[in-house]
Every structure is written in C-alpha cells, then in structure tokens.
Amino acid sequence: MSGIFNSSIGRKFAMALSAFFLMIFLLQHFAINILSVFSPEAFNNTSHFMGTFWIVQYIFQPILILGVIFHFVMGMVLEVRNRNARKIAYAKNNGNANSTWMSRNMIYTGGAILLFLGLHFYDFWLPEINTKYIQGDMSGLLPDGNYRYFEELQHKFVDVWRVALYCLAFVFLSLHLLHGFSSAFQSVGANNKYTRGLKGFGKAYAIIIPLGFIFIALYHHFNY
Amino acid sequence: MKLTLKIWRQKNADTKGKLVDYQIDGIDGDMSFLEMLDVLNGQLINKGEEPVAFDHDCREGICGSCSLFINGEAHGPDRLVTTCQLHMRMFKDGDTIHIEPFRATAFPVIKDLVVDRGSFDRVQHAGGFISVNTSGKTVDANTIPVNKHDADMSFMAATCIGCGACVASCKNSSAMLFVSAKVSQFALLPQGKIEATERVLNMVKQMDEEGFGNCTNTGACEVECPKGISLENIARMNREYLSATFKG
C-alpha cells in the first residue's frame, strides 16, 4: 500500500482522483458563475456565502489549491518520466493515425490552463485575500451598502484583451477535458458497458462547461 | 513499383544510427513488406554492402518477431496485421517509405532495425504464469467450468503475441497493453485467481523497473496492435493492481 504512488498505475490513479475532484469543482464554479447572468442578487449572496463560510474557506479552499498543485506537479513528473522512456524520437511519427491531438498534448493544454490560473488568481483570488485577510473587511459590501461581488466581476470583463485571454483559456480547458474526462475513468479501472455513454457524457461536459464560461465572460463584456 | 526507402542503419548498440536512402525497383504489390526487404538485401549483398538487419521468424503473423515502424506507424499503415503480413499494395509507385526500429528506452537497438525486447520476457518471468501440480494428478483444465464471456475475454487477451507494437506506438513508450493482456488472460480464469495478487504486483513492478513510460490512455496501442488487444485489459489490470495493493 505504501508504495502505490511509486508505481505507474498508482500515479495514474492519483492523477485520476485529482482530476475527478477538479472536474467536480469546475461544475460547482460554473453553477455559481452562471447565476451572475440570471440573477446578480443570487450571485452576490452565493459568492458571499462561499467567501465567508469557514468550511469553504479553511477546509475546501486549501484542499482545492493542493489538488490543483498536485495535479500539475504529478502531470509534470509523468511527462519527464515518459520522455525518458523514449530518448530517441522517431524521424516520422504519424500520431494522427492512432490517437487524438488532445490525448497527445495534455501537457501543453494543461500548461496553458496553468498560465490562465495565474491570471485568474491575480484577477480574483489575490484581491479577495487582500480584502478579507489583509484589510480585514469580511462584510463583502461596497460603500453604498450593496454586495461587491457582481460589480467586481463585471469590471474584470470590460477589457477586451482579458476577455479574449479567458476565452482562449477555456478553449484549452475544453481540449484538456475532451481527453481527460474519459481518461480519468479508464485510469481507475472503469471500462465496461457504460463506457460508451460515459465518453459521450464526457464530451458534452468538456464542451458545454467551457462554452458556458465563455458565454459568461462575453455576456458581461457586452452588457456592462 | 519503384520506391525510395529511408532505413535506419546502426552498426551496433554502442554506435549512433542514421537514416540511409535506398532506391528499389521492380517491387510487386503482392509481395509482403519483409519480402521487399529481402529483395533490397539481395541487391545490397550483390553490391558487397552490409544487408539491413531486421527481425522475422514465422512470417505468418503469430510469432511476434517482426517489428518495424513504417511511415510513422508500428507494423505500417494497415490494421490488425504484423509487418510480415503487410503487403506492398498498401503503397504506391514512387512512394518514400520511412523504416525505423521500434523505439523505446526499454527496447534498445541491437543493430539496424533489430531491437532487444528482452524486457517483455522479464515482465513475463515476474508473474506471467500459473503454478500447476504436474506430479501425475494434474486436473484437466476442461473439467473446471468457466463462463463463456470470461473464457472469450481471456482468449482474446491471450492472442497478444508480444511484438511490442503497443510500446512503439505509445507516445510514452508504455507497455501497459502488453502487460495487461498477460495479466488478464490469467485473471479471468479460475486457474489464475490463486496467484492473482502476486502476479499483478510483480509484473507491474518489473514493467516499471524496465523503464517503460506511464500510460496516458491515448489509445494508440489498441489501434496499432496487430491482434486487436483491447484497452479493457488495461482497465482490468488497473482494477487488479489497485485491489491487490489495497488488500496489502
């Protein structure tokens, strides 16, 4: 048991578990963000709850950050090991004949998502930490007495270049998920009569969720 | 058919290799790929040059000896065939064909297109067997009931010829399809259940020690496998391994 993460299958299993966790988080993130389109009030209330509830802040948030770090670090470790497994490349390798572009380039789509997370943390997470834990303002209120979350969100999507970067990042997220969703199930040993349906569901998830995030960014850009 | 061949030439394991161009004419579409190489070697020998070394044995697609990475694919562009069953009709007059050895750190090149696939043998030795009492009281396997589905799945896994196309095709040089087929063919049968825990742990340990890469589920191995070994075997091995690990 102790050596499981030193084995190739153990590492795959660990990657899959962290992927499941991140995919569930992504769904929850989307569910909250889409509220900003339909009801700014509901978005404000939910954001305030998520931003101040101690279980979310002190338990889920650190687990999430560790999950993200683990997924990327393990991805890098696997990439280095895999490159060492073939030190001389083929002069001609027709990868398109037997596998999808997404499955062969997870490290690059993952790297693009990592860069995006840097921007995303700079835009939202660091200002949140500054307001709440450095300035000590846990009220979530603007001087006019309204919650600040919806207005902050709208402000971020004024800049067309930021919106373009967000949209591009969500395209990379979609490409990553198009392989990652079904791959995670295969890694935990789930390949059975439900696999075909699961792959279909995975493709829908990989397209609908990033497309939804793109819609949210564009909606706020054009409606501010 | 007139062809240009770009063939990997490497004197031995310690020297660097390179692609060398050869022109060949008079190739018939009904020739097998290995027969085409035989023709080339005949020409090279007549010219007093070193013939191209390549692995082959049965030439019937069952021994797993032939390899070759042809135009970017293990065993060439056809499906469900080994290199010896690949026919020249798959190519057109005037084509340029790249011929390289199966590349993986765990498959070091011995000479030209010949690689050492002894790592597969060592993985097999680590657990790819069942222990049967042969003292004269051996129970006939046919007397042990096995359900049809499991018997079929086991047989399909057992059709793996251990050629290494899975490793050659995988961008990570992972041997998971081969090892999973060898684990599955026993794991599905009652005779294989007794040593199931040790088998999967030992074979995966040996696979990792040989320097094969980690599977990232691209599925290239399944597509290029000449025997159509399914990715279901990898999922089964993952379950077997996780179950064996958590059992302690």
TrEMBL record, chain A:
Record bears the keyword Disulfide bond: no
Membrane-spanning parts: 55-78, 106-125, 163-181, 202-222
Keyword Cell cycle belongs to the record: no
Any GO CC annotation of this UniProt entry: membrane
Keywords, alphabetical: Membrane, Transmembrane, Transmembrane helix
NCBIfam families attached to this UniProt entry: sdhC_b558_fam
Protein name per Swiss-Prot or TrEMBL: Succinate dehydrogenase / fumarate reductase cytochrome b subunit
Species of the source: Gelidibacter algens
UniProtKB/TrEMBL annotation, chain B:
Gene3D superfamilies assigned: 3.10.20.30, Alpha-helical ferredoxin
Biological processes annotated in GO: aerobic respiration; respiratory electron transport chain
Limits of the 4Fe-4S ferredoxin-type domain: 151-181
Top-level taxon of the source organism: Bacteria
Domain 2Fe-2S ferredoxin-type span(s) in chain numbering: 1-103
Segment forming the signal sequence: none
GO molecular function: 2 iron, 2 sulfur cluster binding; electron transfer activity
InterPro entries membership: 2Fe-2S_ferredoxin-like_sf (IPR036010), 2Fe-2S_ferredoxin-type (IPR001041), 2Fe2S_fd_BS (IPR006058), 4Fe4S_Fe-S-bd (IPR017896), Beta-grasp_dom_sf (IPR012675), Helical_ferredxn (IPR009051), SDH/FRD_Iron-Sulfur (IPR050573), Succ_DH/fum_Rdtase_N (IPR025192)
Cofactor: [2Fe-2S] cluster; [3Fe-4S] cluster
NCBIfam families the UniProt entry points to: PRK07570.1
Family the entry assigns: Belongs to the succinate dehydrogenase/fumarate reductase iron-sulfur protein family.
Protein name (Swiss-Prot/TrEMBL): Succinate dehydrogenase / fumarate reductase iron-sulfur subunit
Organism name: Gelidibacter algens
